Amino acid sequence: MNREDKFAHKAKEYEALQRRLDTAKTIASKVKENINLTKETHIIDFGSGTGLLLEALSNDIGKVTAIDISPSMTEILREKELPCEVDIKELDLTKQDLDIQVDGIVTSMTMHHIKDIEAMIKKFRKMLKSDGFIAIADLESEDGTFHSEDTGVEHFGFDKDEFKKIVENCGFKNCKIETVTKISKPHKEFNIFLLTATK
Ligand SMILES: C[S@@+](CC[C@H](N)C(=O)[O-])C[C@H]1O[C@@H](n2cnc3c(N)ncnc32)[C@H](O)[C@@H]1O
Asked: How far apart are CA 173 and CA 193, in angstroms?
């Protein structure tokens, strides 16, 4: 299949920006504040990229299934040695299914690349064990100036209340959404939310 790798031009430099590392670390620590992780925990990181979020969680979990469509981003992840089991699945989760059941699904800065949010949240629910959790971090509503290049952006961030409603309508419980950090760019600051919920 010949599909365009929208992160091919970014992958090698992706981790050179300190703010990306800081954002992933902050999101990971907020995930840990809200969710009890153990060395038995198996999670999916959806849109794992170079692995910044899963790396920051890797001491606290047993296994991560890293799902990403971009060969260039996963190539960076493959080079990392981490203190948990890492299973990389290079696929487009909007078009393919993965027949596994995990304890939790985390995702950071990926949902704004997904056109049909509701369909993806429903797909997440199917991949979770009965007491599983989701932890979704992404941009809050913005004016379209966050991205300076086309990496396949489908949403200019999300309204927190609307996003929470979508998740609740998909059957999730204990939904909590809060602003957890900001990304500072020279022209503006952009809020990042974290939503946590259980199946
Ligand atoms: C902005 S990057 C975020 C990477 C990482 N989560 C982080 O916080 O640094 C978004 C990632 O989502 C992946 N992605 C976008 N759409 C996807 C899809 N439909 N299926 C799998 N991965 C996807 C991209 O390839 C990219 O690596």
From this structure: 18
